[in-house]
Structure to design on (291 residues):
C-alpha cells in the first residue's frame, strides 16, 4: 500500500559501484588460473620437461662447459687475451647504447611537443587547433609504430640499409625507443601546469619563448630521467640486436655459441654483467643530478 507521504518522493536506484582495483586483481587471478590450467593439462606445452632428469642433466652439462669442465685447452676466462678482447667488445657495446640513447633523445626533443594533446588543442601556445591536429595524429602515429616493432625486427630491417656494425644496432635501438620516449615526453607536457605558459602568452610572448621559458624548464628534468631509464634498458638489449650482426658483445656471443666455444661465452657474459652494472650506477648518479 502506497502511503500519501511517499507520493512526492521519487524512487531512486543506485547502480552498484565497481572497484577497478579489486576487479583487476580478480581478473589477473582468473587469467593466471586459466593459464596454469592449460599448461598443466596439455601435454604439448613441455611443462613436464622441467622435472625430467634428462633436462637437469643437460643443464648441468652446459653449466660445466661454461666453467671449462672437460675443456681440452686452457679455459678462455683464465687467459688475459680473452678478457682484453671482451673488453674491446664491451666498449663497442657501450658506444652502441650511448649512440642509441642520443639518437632517440634528439629525435624526441624535435617532435614530442606536437604529440601533446594540450598543444594540439591550443591550450599551450597559439595557433588554430585545426592546423595542429593533423600533425598531432602524425606524430602520435609515429610513436605508436616505432615502439610497436621490436628492436630485433628493426635491426633486421636496418641491416639491409646499413652495413653490419654498431651503427646498425644503435639506429635500430633508437627507432624503437623513440616511440617510447616520445609517448612519455608528450604525456609529461599534457600534465604540465599551464599557468606559466598562460602568463607568458598574456605578456605577449611568442611560441618560441613559451617553449623555452614555459615548457622546457618543466619538461627537461622528467625527460632526462626517462632517457636515462631507457639507457639502462638499451644496454640490456644491445646483446639481442647483436645477434643479427649489429656488432658488440651480441655478435661475438652468437658466434661463440655457434662454434661451441663455451668458455669464451663465459667471458662475454662476465663482461656483459659488468657493463650492465656500470650503466646502472652511472644512470642512477645522473638521475640524481637531473633532479
Amino acid at each position: 500500500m502506497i502511503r500519501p507521504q511517499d507520493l512526492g518522493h521519487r524512487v531512486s536506484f543506485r547502480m552498484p559501484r565497481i572497484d577497478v582495483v579489486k576487479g583487476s586483481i580478480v581478473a589477473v587471478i582468473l587469467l593466471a588460473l586459466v593459464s596454469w590450467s592449460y599448461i598443466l593439462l596439455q601435454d604439448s606445452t613441455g611443462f613436464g620437461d622441467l622435472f625430467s632428469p634428462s633436462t637437469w642433466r643437460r643443464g648441468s652439462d652446459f653449466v660445466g662447459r661454461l666453467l671449462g669442465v672437460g675443456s681440452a685447452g686452457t679455459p678462455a676466462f683464465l687467459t688475459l687475451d680473452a678478457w682484453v678482447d671482451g673488453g674491446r667488445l664491451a666498449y663497442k657495446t657501450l658506444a652502441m647504447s650511448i649512440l642509441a640513447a642520443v639518437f632517440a633523445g634528439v629525435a624526441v626533443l624535435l617532435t614530442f611537443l606536437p604529440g601533446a594533446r594540450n598543444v594540439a588543442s591550443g591550450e599551450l601556445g597559439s595557433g588554430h587547433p585545426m592546423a595542429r591536429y593533423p600533425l598531432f595524429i602524425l606524430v602520435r602515429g609515429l610513436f605508436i609504430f616505432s615502439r610497436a616493432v621490436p628492436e630485433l625486427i628493426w635491426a633486421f630491417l636496418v641491416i639491409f640499409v646499413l652495413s653490419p656494425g654498431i651503427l646498425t644496432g644503435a639506429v635500430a635501438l633508437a627507432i624503437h625507443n623513440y616511440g617510447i620516449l616520445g609517448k612519455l615526453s608528450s604525456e609529461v607536457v599534457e600534465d604540465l601546469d599551464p599557468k606559466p605558459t598562460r602568463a607568458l602568452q598574456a605578456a605577449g610572448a611568442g611560441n618560441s619563448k613559451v617553449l623555452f621559458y614555459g615548457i622546457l624548464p618543466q619538461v627537461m628534468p622528467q625527460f632526462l630521467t626517462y632517457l636515462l631509464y631507457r639507457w639502462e634498458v638499451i644496454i640490456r638489449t644491445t646483446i639481442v640486436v647483436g645477434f643479427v650482426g649489429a656488432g658488440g658483445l651480441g655478435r661475438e656471443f652468437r658466434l661463440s655459441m655457434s662454434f661451441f666455444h663455451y668458455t669464451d661465452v663465459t667471458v662475454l657474459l662476465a663482461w656483459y654483467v659488468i657493463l650492465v652494472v656500470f650503466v646502472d650506477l652511472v644512470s642512477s648518479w645522473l638521475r640524481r643530478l637531473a633532479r
